[in-house]
Amino acid sequence: MERVVVLMALLGLLLASATTLADKDDWDIYSFHINSTVSSRYATTVITSRVANRMNDSKEIEFHVRIPKNAFISKFRMLIDGQFYDGVVKGKEKAQQQYTEAVSRGQSAGLVSSVGRTMEEFKTSVTLAAHKKVTFELTYEELLKRRLGKYELQIHARPMQPVKDFKQNIRG
After folding, report:
1. Tens of pLDDT along 38-97?
2. Where is the VIT domain (predicted)?
3. Which of 49, 62, 122, 151 has the fewest CB atoms within 10 Å, counting from its CB?
4. pTM for this predicted structure
5. 3-state secondary structure of 148
6. 116: left (phi over 0), alpha (psi -120 to 50) or beta
């Protein structure tokens, strides 16, 4: 049985951030968790970001994640006011059309696109009412590649602001 080595780094391949179109004082990422489970050479990673709108007005909150190109998103959902909203995976052309239509109607929508040769980019946004919170939860899976005789899982996170509750957990 081969040994799997898990490496953690907090720099560049996985860019996970919640941003908004207004000033960063308008919102707060109060929790950011990364949980990965590695079995043999297969990894499942769950990113959970909790964001609060601190303003007296509604604000658009964006969730933006970069994942390895060989990974695939198996689940995405948002929790707002106790209600879960599950994402649906669709074909590229149909997804682009529905994304464009949803954005033009002011609805929340997400889209995955390529970023260079090694990354995929996932973005979604939601308009969040004043003093409300949203939880973004993204699950992706990947078959790990062997490098120098070891399997490597790289996780690079940049939440783009200080986070009080930042946790990383890797089981393997």
Report:
1. 998 999 999 999 999 999 988 888 888 888 888 988 999 999 889 998 887 777 788 788
2. 13-142
3. 62
4. 0.77
5. coil
6. left
Least Cα distance to 137 among 58, 57, 20, 50 occurs for: 50
Instruction: At 69, list the tokens.
Output: 């190109």
Task: Of 144, 172, 159, 153, give the one whose Cα is nearest residue 47.
Answer: 159
Q: Give the CA angle between residues 156, 158, 162 to the nearest 5°.
A: 140
Going by the DSSP 8-state scheme, the letter that residue 168 receives in this structure is E
Rounded distance between C-alpha atoms, residue 28 and residue 164, angstroms:
10
Residue with the two structure tokens 């969040």: 128
In this structure, of 12-21, 82-91, 93-102, 129-138, the range with the lowest mean pLDDT score is 12-21
Helix (H) or strand (E) holding 101: helix 92-104
CA distance 61 to 33: 18
